[in-house]
Amino acid sequence: MLSIRTKLISLLTAVALLPLLGALAIIILSGTRLRHETFGQAIQSVAASDVAQLQVLLVKDIEKVLSVSHEQAVIEALLPAPNRLGLRRLEELDAAWPFIPLTDPRMEAVLKHPVAGELKLVQRVDPRLRELFVTDRYGQLVAATGRTTDFYQADEAWWQGAYHEGKGRVYVPPVAFDESSGVWSVDLCVPISHEGQVIGVVKAVLDVTSWVGAARRSVEDMTASLMLVQRDGRILYREKTAPLEQVAEEWYGPVAEGQRPGWRVTSAGIIQGFAPIELPRKVWEYDLVAPPWSVVLCVPRGEAMEEIYRLSAQVLTIGLGLIGTLFVAGLAFAERSVVGRIRRLERAAQRVARGELSYRIEPGFGRRLRLGHDELDELAAGFNNMVQQVEQSHRALSLANEMKMNFLRVAGHELRTPVAYIMGMANLLKNSRDADKLLASMAAIGDRAKRLSDIIQAMFKLLAEQRGGRQMTYTRIPLGKLLEEVYTACNPFVEKRRQRLMVEVSHNVPDIYGDWAKLADCVENLVLNAIRFTPDGGVVKIRAENELGGYVAVSVQDQGPGIPEADLPHIFDPFFIGQNVLQHSTGTIEYGKQGMGLGLTIVRHFVEMHGGRVRVNTGPHGSTFTISIPVQPPIATEARVGLPPEPPAPNPDASPPAETN
Asked: What range defines the domain where residue 258 resides?
């Protein structure tokens, strides 16, 4: 009896593996054949295009040389019947010509001839023409751009081909090595005619490398190697190959016949595109005779087929991966059951019961094959939601308990002191009859009572703002006036500590729209904090300036010891008082004393109500608190535009606000 697992594996093999292998074979074979065909057509097209380009360039070069032959100065230099040297003298001069110094009058007559200047001008325009020279009707050298190997040229095949028994024609001999210029060249030989009579011949030596190098050679995104081959298969040009020393591989069939463009794949795995060079039969009024050449572009088949091979490998990889995934998924489906999923839920409940409130069941843990959403998935999602709510409630209770403990510690320290003072002073005054002493004591009791009131107001200020929502009274606020009010309010405490309070407002700071009282409270809280933590005789700086994005920044800098790194994440939390509660002394400005842990919370709350932000930079030499307020109020708030009333001058003897941190 076959097991379900065996049946499942057989089914997956039948419906997935065999069709995939068949489709893979079809894709690879069809893709390879199609790629062969398309790339062959592409390389053939590029070969034909390169041949057309080379034909045009060569015809233009011939026309360039023909234009020299039609120059009036050249014709006039050759019209007078030249002195034809005797055979012996020609042989002697021809043998000595390569060794004659350039300063020799005979050599200077050729190199400095007026026609030589015309030739050099053409050479400067087209440096590919490595050498140009002119002979008379007898083949004797008349003018040249440089030293030649021979003086007498009439015995050369190129001269005879161009002179053509006095009829004249454009003649391009086979590619050969030119000893004078030291390059393998295509020689362009054209007659110089006057009134139907050939009176001389011009020869231009064209560097074959520079001519063939103009071919494009780019097939798709690959660069093909190029061969210039003559009809018998000998290679005239190929990179890193000496001309005429090698024969092109498998030179037979259409590529050797040179009748039309085509492409083929050699036994060595080279895809070749070829096209014959077919020059026109006539150029200007002259017949043109040139040897048959073919251009052959070569690209290795592996390079051309690389993309289809990569695609086939990707298809194979994906197919094997798919098969493996199907097998693994099928086995997992066979092994996994509803009981297993319920056991996962049971284990999760046990972990949560042990206090692991952060534990969650992985979403969709029972739907590895994505067969749909079922009741167990709903149960798992409900379990996760329940645990998340329990965790949030636990976190909120922990935070509330911590805030309560902080409040009790601070309140026990801050409220007990003024109450004890008032009770003690009242007991002392029971039996006193001294009016002056009574008045002084009552004033002291009043101060302690006011401090107690300030403490209570500071503790409930944040609570009142949060309950009242974002109730804002927007007015137009000149920052200079606002900082002047803060300066006036804080200056008595600065003087008491022999400190200096410096205010700097940039000249281009605009007026902002905000709640005057709340912003003044923010800045005053920061300044009083700076006064507390700056040593006696120190400097507290307030600076207002523009910020990018339509904000104005107000920064308060102290010279205190800085904020411990461990406290930085919590300084804006309500009732955060640091490590030592005994350092807290709300309502005083003694060095190092702190508040009840609500000042910075109120600052951040008021700033965020304006749509702004608070940031702090601290170090061993002081801290800088910066509040950024938008110039314009938030869009959702209807701002009441106008200048605020002048704030009343503060009482220098009044104690500072109790709420700082």
From this structure: 211-306
90 lies in the same domain as 176: yes
Distances (CA, A) of 661 to 415, 538, 582, 588: 17, 19, 14, 12
* Helix, strand, coil share of the chain (percent; to 5): 50, 20, 35
User: What are the structure tokens assigned to 660, written together?
Assistant: 């700082």
Q: Are residues 395 and 252 in the same domain?
A: no
What letter would DSSP give residue 55? H
600: tokens are 């910075």
Identify which of 573, 473, 566, 565 has the alpha carbon closest to the alpha carbon of residue 514.
Answer: 473
Residues 233-247: tens digit of each pLDDT: 999 898 888 888 889
Q: Pick from 182, 208, 234: which residue ends a domain?
A: 208
Kindly report the CATH number assigned to the domain that includes residue 496: 3.30.565.10
Distance in angstroms (rounded) separating the CA atoms of residues 521 and 602: 9
Burial of 155 (0-12, 13-18, 19+ CB in 10 A): exposed
Do the domain assignments include residue 38?
no
- Please check whether residue 176 is in contact with residue 161, taking contact to mean a CB–CB distance below 8 angstroms: no
Residue pair 191/34 in contact by the 8 Å Cβ criterion: no
The model's pTM is 0.48
Q: What is the mean pLDDT of each run of 10 residues along the chain (661 residues)?
A: 55 68 75 83 90 92 91 88 82 88 90 91 90 92 90 91 92 90 91 90 92 83 89 89 88 89 91 92 92 92 82 78 70 59 77 81 58 69 83 77 64 63 70 72 73 66 50 88 91 89 92 91 90 91 92 94 87 70 46 68 88 92 94 64 40 39 39
Last residue of a domain, one of 410, 426, 457: 410
For residues 366 and 377, state if they share a domain: yes
What six digits make up the tokens of 474? 């927007």
Structural domain includes residue 250: yes
Q: Rounded to whole angstroms, how far apart are CA atoms 164 and 161?
A: 5
* Residue 259 burial class via C-beta count within 10 angstroms: exposed 0-12, middle 13-18, buried 19 and up: exposed
Q: What total number of domains does the chain contain?
A: 5
Q: Where are the alpha helices (DSSP H) in 152-252?
A: 157-163, 208-212
- H or E element that contains 542: strand 539-547
CATH of the domain at 135: 3.30.450.20
Q: Using a CB cutoff of 8 Å and minimum separation of 24, what contacts does 70-74 make? A: 71/118, 73/114, 73/115, 73/118, 74/115, 74/118, 74/134, 74/192, 74/200, 74/202
Question: β-strands 262-265, 129-136: how paired?
Answer: unpaired
Residues 287, 393 within the same domain: no
Instruction: Check whether residue 404 and residue 341 sit in a common domain.
Output: yes
Q: Which two tokens stand for residue 548?
A: 């990018």
Cβ–Cβ < 8 Å for 307, 35: yes
Strand partners, 624: 557, 617
Query: What does the block give as tokens for 29?
Result: 């074979």
642 inside domain: no
Nearest CA-CA partner of 629 in 526, 498, 509: 509
**Placement of tokens 């039609």 in the chain:** 70
Amino acid at 15: V
Residue written as token pair 């949560």: 352
pLDDT the model gives residue 19 = 74
Task: Report which of 625, 294, 586, 646 is spatially closest to residue 451, judged by C-alpha positions.
Answer: 586
405 and 451, same domain (yes or no): no
Residues 479, 442 within the same domain: no
204 and 94 co-located in one domain: yes
Q: Which three-class secondary structure state does DSSP give residue 290?
A: coil
